[in-house]
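Figure 2 data, in text form.
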Amino acid sequence: MANSNWIRNLQMLVLGALLGGLFISSWVRPAATAQQSNPQANPATMQTDVARLKDIVPPNSHPMVEVGMFAANLWFAGEKKNWPLAGYYLNEMRNRIRWEVHLNPGPKGADGNPVDMQSIFDGIDNGTITQVRKSIDAKDGKQFADSYKHLLEDCYSCHKAALRPYLRPMVPVSGAQPIINLDPAATWPQ
């Protein structure tokens, strides 16, 4: 009896080793095949690839277009007192500003030297963005309107520092036709 258990355990060990070996060999083979089928990069193809990537990258202004859209939606969500949606738009707006700072961290200022956009963003992030967030958390419409306007003033200060004073933000009076219903009591669709 003990002998048959020993043989069965040995058979299970051999079967496990065979299955494990098959698994490992099937797992390693596609990676090795992929490495063989992809030719090594050479300087000529790398230059072509870099040129192609530069051609398809959106301009640095792309994140700021989204900042404007999210800032407008933030205003309308706050105006409708849809505080969860306002919080969402504030977060999205903040993330796009961070993206812009990452893409363009030091545009030339009036003196010709780079402007430290990260420091400007940090000040706004710790100042008026925090105030807007507090007004959303407090569900305070008056405080929201005031802090939102201060945020726009800070945004304009940043635009001026980056030599773009022609980008003058305003409290939106009408938005593009939104696909998101801003009414917190909306019942459709279900």
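Caption note: The chain has seven helices and no strands.
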